[in-house]
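This entry is retained here.
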Amino acid sequence: MTLVTTVAPENATGIIKEGYDMFMKNVGTIPQPMRLMSLSPALFELQLKRIQYFSKHPKLSFALLVHIRYLASKTLDYGYCMDLNLHFLKKLGYDDEALRMMEEDPGKSMLEENESTMLDFVIRAIKKPDSITPEDMAELKEQGYEEQDMLEALAQGVGMIDHAIMMQVFRIDQNCEVAYTSP
């Protein structure tokens, strides 16, 4: 049983209503982490701005960000975001075998080479931060990324940590309905 009472869609007003409406239009559901964030309109708005920023990122594609969130949430055993991003990966064309291969080696994703390199960088950084070398940074720069892109890609991955912990602490349902709809 959940320990907090979030804002129900029918009771949403202001920025919470705007965000809920956006999610229903674009995703078909209101993600549970955003329902949790509805307890704090200020934090909800910050998270919404973050989502909007990344949705227009000039170098970090939707596909790359989905891969980062999926593998980061898998690493953290964060069921809700793992399922939600699995849904998006399947819409991008992944089957079970392709997913298994990518999970074992992020370099075997269906992304472009430079995006696979960034994905590998982010997941290695999350698993073992001190494994990142100057050579890793140089390789990403050679592939067209700037240090800002590296920071922002990593922020997308480590951003799973705060939601994963808050969802567990407040016992928010980890079931992701949208993940089980057909692509």
In short: Residues 147-169 form the longest helix (23 residues). The mean pLDDT is 92. Residues 9-56 form one domain. The chain has two domains: 9-56, 62-161.
